[in-house]
Amino acid sequence: MQCDFHNVTEILMRNMASSNTIYYNNLLNTLFGSYLAEMKLFQFDRSATAKLHSGAIRISTDMSEYYLTADPKILCGDIKELLQYIFDKPNTFKELYELIQFDDTLSVPMRKEILNHVSPQYSDDNSLVQMIYEAVFIAVTRQYEKVGKVYVAPVYASQLAPEGKSLFSNSEYIPPCKHFCGRDEELNELHKIVTENSTVIITGVAGIGKSELVRAYAKEHKTEYQYFGYYFYNGSLKDIISDILRDPITADLNTHYFENLKLLSGLGEKVLLIIDNFNAMPEEDESFYDLCDIKCKVIFTSHMRFEDYATYELQAFRSVDDLKTLTKYFYQYKKDEWKYLLEIYANLDMHTFCVELCAKAFTKGVFNPLDIYTVLCYHKVTAP
User: Which is it for the CA torsion 305, 307, 310, 316, positive or negative?
Assistant: First the structure.
């Protein structure tokens, strides 16, 4: 939301006490009483205030210039007259403060300067008068441009909007390792599940290749999304979400968290978010449920098992050719060694990381595939 005339007066209006005398036109007559007196006007025209409220017309330049040059005490005096009609003063303060705080059409330096003039929380009538003054002054003196049939506040040119490059600027994505190979069928199956579900969990035993698979998936499909973020689970999903877009105005973690959740939900399927190594149960990190409720695409990798969520269980290589490709990346085996390697791998359930470790060990030359196969046979260890 923007700190514009409509939103500021709307906040004031909905926090008013129930009264037969306070309605929108009367609110403006009280708030801008000094201006009306200066212009020798009794009150605003009701049809004009209705159009002003809807954005069909903008604040007159005469009114803007009046408050630009007037002593702040003049507007503050009118605001004091308005206070008697405000029912919920703390909430009025909070809403106006946050309206300025999160208005990305204003530059960060400007927002900081404005909010430095007020306390961060309501304390008394004087604090509320100052808060209302700052919000009303912005709304009355800022520029407006016509977009379609309504006037809106233009975006501050040098300020990145939430959907700009600053979103996911701290993404921890790294491409799949150089020796990643195969998994074509698995990638296609995963893509089908992601297409059909907003939240997907890739499960499987440790070392089977979940992280490499999801990185390969991201490499192949991230361009289909407008925004892409990849993060390693650090023990707190709230910390991760709070950091995807930092608001320099406030350091409050909860505020960042809920604002960023709202942003992600608004962007919907334009976003692909990956949380790698989420090796925790949902009840251990309650933010998991929040992420599952937003409308964007979220992929978790975990060696835990989850119920009631779309899951994809990654298993061992399905193709012998993929095993050969991975082995050759580390160990250039001889043709007659492959049958021994295959028996060794079978005893390891074709586990991806175990295959890699074996191939690396054979490269060092301490053992060869025949030696290990002979030992397995001696101990009568054979694959089922």
Answer: positive
